Description:
Strand content: 15-25%
CATH class of the domain at 265-487: Alpha Beta
Largest sheet: 7 strands, mixed
Distance between the termini: 28 Å
Helix content: 25-40%
Amino acid sequence: MTGVTDAPARPGRTLGALADLPVSVLRGVGERRAEALAEWGVETVLDLLTTYPRRYIDRSRQADLASLALGEEAVVLAEVRRAHVRRARNGRPIVELTVHDGTGGMQVVFFNQTWRAKQLPAGSQALFFGKLTHYRGTRQMANPVVDLVVGVDGPRAGSKTGRVVPVYPASAKAGLTSWEIGNWVAEALERAGPLADPLPADVADRLGLIARTEAMTAIHRPETMDDADRARQRLAFDELLRLQLALVARRRVLERDARAVRHAVSPLEVTGGRQGEATLVERFLSALPFELTEAQRRALAVVFADMAGPFPMHRLLQGDVGSGKTVVALGALLAAVQGGHQGALMVPTEVLAEQHAMVVRALTDGLDVPDPGRLGGRRPLVVSLLTNRTKAAERAGMREGLATGGVDLVVGTHALLTDDVEFASLGVAVIDEQHRFGVEQRAALREKGRGGDGDQGADPDLLVMTATPIPRTAAMVVFGDLDMAVLDELPPGRTPVTTVWARTDLEAVAAWERVRAEAEAGRRAYVVCPLVEGSDKIVARSATEELERLSAGVLAGLRLGLLHGQMPAAEKEAVMARFRAGEVQVLVATTVIEVGVDVPEASVMVVEDAGRFGIAQLHQLRGRVGRGADESWCYLLDEDTGDDAARRLGALEASTDGFELAEVDLTLRGQGTLLGSRQKGRSDLRLASIQQDRDLLVEARRVAEALTDGDPVLSAHPLLADELRLFLDEDDEKFLFKS
């Protein structure tokens, strides 16, 4: 896309004006109905109009009761002819309805749902979804899913007319019905009139998108299903465009206001092609006990290009378990140090911080940096660890070292964000497991490079890492303000992990025999449990109970240890040290070992109650084994699972590719959970789907980049800017439009 014209927005009522109108302006929305709508999240006319139908009844393709066969599951639109409540012999209330659809009739029965009689009186029309059965000579549906379409007082504003009937997500709890919502929506559309359209006409024409007024009408009152599809495409694009505009505008504002550290680093240092004395980065890379993968070389090259550029780096590095993200991050941190700056690596947990500090110290052992005050003009590279449990005396010395430049690299938790932590010159900040940190924490760490008040120094480069691969289009939503680099291959020598879903007692026995055999051969094993202590509400083995059970049972005679997040920090560290040394052969743990824990001798893992874990979490847990050259196994123990859990465990058993599993996870869970990992606002997607609308998402990104190129606050597109303000969080609104 080469650009976007500054064509004037088409006039009409704005979304902001609709957001200023309470739903109480509509007929029939008195105080009680307004309260019910508010409980449901609808307070304004805009909220109401963006409460879209969850499905449609296409009467031109509607099946009828006359042709519905026994045992067939179907949706039937029918009118209630008779409704009454009776008592069964055991006293249970039963609601019985007689319904007809014009071709035939059936009985509908509800058990222990007396409120159904009030919801579905004679004369109402509803959508019944269930299985047609035969009881005492009568065709019936028992406890079907119900959507009330037309109440006894009839439809208003044509909500029942036409061939396509919208069905709204009615709320029984709030006492709201689909037909009521449809009536209010119809009135709101009629009274709103033409809607202002902020999308430049040339963009709409190029993408084949209909006008907003037509789209808003057709999504609620389509004449055909094709009308509804075209309306959905336009309104979904609007959602995606607002989201991408917010992300791209944030990036543009950062670039406009940024003061970059121009690091003296070259992509040639990745290959050793630079001439002259070896730099700190080159000495680090040449001393590694393994060869970099091509993916790691590509990632380092783009990271170094960012660091040498005119704008601060804002890059996301994502890769599968074991793909070598830490080495790339450490290369970036050392590139800052070789230019006279400092590096910080922030992680979410103390266990992960300790693990990273140990790895960083091992990989940088023997490296030194210039120090004119020392004999010989050099000193060893200094790596420090800062967490909430760092002792006061050690913390004071570390603070002084960070403030004076005596500490080159620091690995830490949220403790890095406290006011007493200051840097002499923070050049690169790396954030691991970004989904566990908020936007504010990312900004707070970046501010450390400016001296804490935001007005001094320069912005450090920012490298965000995620150990949970997500599909590219999903990353464009969650991490849309960051450039992306992907590690899509594993280092040579990594042995694939054999995954077994142990469904039977016999398979579970085989898993424990494998644990014993590996431990007796000098290797290590993990046993992962979902809880720390037993629970009456959740049927899952706890780590403490499992340790006792295994020690007295199938693993008797082996040396077992316990690790969970509620243990004192010193005790956790001691247990991990004993496990690495082999004094503990089997570590019974909670998900505290999910990320970062690296014990190459660990060759087998057993996950108890595996169906209780998500795909991403199980994949991360599995990544704790197979980190050495030994053949490795992961056993997922779960005898009785639901359909969703079965699909998750089956996917884990079939694939070790994190990106492939991420696609499966997105399909199974939907986008709601994923979107929850970004800063929430009113911009959450109601119609748009990351999976279904991938092409629209890419186009929205292109349009957003073209619109904000040279104009990050959208001054040439005021209507779009106003809409963006409407849907942004308050903090983001102030940030983007402060000028």
